[in-house]
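Structure request: Cation:proton antiporter, Mesorhizobium marinum.
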Amino acid sequence: MSMGESFLEFSVYVAFGLLSLSFLLTVLRVLLGPTLPDRVLALDMLVAVGIGFIAVTGIATGVTFNVDIAIALGLVGFLATIAFARFVASRKATDDHERPENRT
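Returned structure:
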């Protein structure tokens, strides 16, 4: 094993460790909240961590098809974030409209 291969193997292990730590912390944020936007942002972060796992797995195995999967997951995550943002915005507008101080 050459020095370049051992450095790549070490880097993959470090990347998997850091991604695992970020995954656990992000799941903790999803569970603890405290607000809906915090949870939505944490779910978006989970998608980013998933893309990181796919990318590092692709680097470790040399399979280039993983890049296509990561791109597709990124697009789905982006669309889900937009949908959640629209939901939160419409919910806030409805809540503001129904408050007694806003009624005439």
